[in-house]
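Why does residue order matter? Because the sequence determines the fold. Keep that principle in mind as you read this record.
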Amino acid sequence: MTCAAKPSSPGNSTLPSINVQLTPILDVVNYTGINGELAMGIQFASNETRLVLPLEMANAPSAQYTTETLEAWDRLGQLKLIQSDGTGLDSQPSRFWAVQRATQGPVTVRFKAKPRQTDPDAMVGPLFDIRANGDGLLGSTWALVPLPPDRTAEYQFSLSWNLKHPPQDAKAAWTWGEGPAPVTISGTSVKFLYTFWAVGSMSAYPGDSGSKPLSPDYSMYWLEQPPFYVDRPVSSKSTAHSRIGDLGPGALAGTLLARRS
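Structure:
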């Protein structure tokens, strides 16, 4: 179950831009992965580390891209990426990519992620990984999107979904808003990455039956019917989210409830 909030602040056009578009992959009926495209209005020097992705978070594996599943281009053509593994700023084992030459113009990164294969013995913990759930996929942005390693720099982020090929009832939701149209926020990479998303044949509360939200900044989405009445826990969680929201912009965080299978 994913809880999404409205963006806490509009985009800031004076900041460098990082735009992400995600496209779910289907094999006729099943969601088998996600193609991602990352467009950055940022310049990089030769041999500068340009991207980082944690290899795991709380013992949950990330997409763990290689140079075969992650590629980059700029105005001059494809960029040669130098891949290395090490420890990230948050002390997590991480994978880094540097560019062999200085970049010119906007940089585009394309990546392909597959859901984690889980079983009853999978580690219990926060669902930071990417998983199949019901008729869709869910996970954390942290496990999916590689970003520049600077955690203090601010950017204008946008996240959108390409839902042209999935079933007509497909929806996409992210902590900061519902897709497929771009949802824009401004802030550091922490504000962008420490979020959750879901895509597929989802139900929502409030839905299309005229139900009213219990909080103007809060909605709920789920890929599988949970074993409780959705409108009852919404009230308490909505109140909690509203109180967290009083702490300041960006304090609302997504929560997730999914079957461990």
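The longest helix spans residues 231-245.
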